[in-house]
# Entry
Amino acid sequence: MAALIKEQSSGARVRVSLRSEGLDVSAVAALRGGGGHRQAAGFSCDDDPGEVTEWLSSVLAERLQTASS
# Structure
């Protein structure tokens, strides 16, 4: 799974692009009002990039732990 978090100069403060070969990243993006496909999804938000990174790390760790159980 990969995530690209880009700070924007206009519009939403942060744009996040998610890619995965196994994890359903569209479900993760949907938690923040985004969308996409199972293997490629994204969302935009006005949060600080550090906050988005922490949130994303937490959600992904939880989902990966659940998937491996």
Q: What stands out?
A: The mean pLDDT is 93. The chain has two helices and four strands. The longest strand covers residues 2-7.
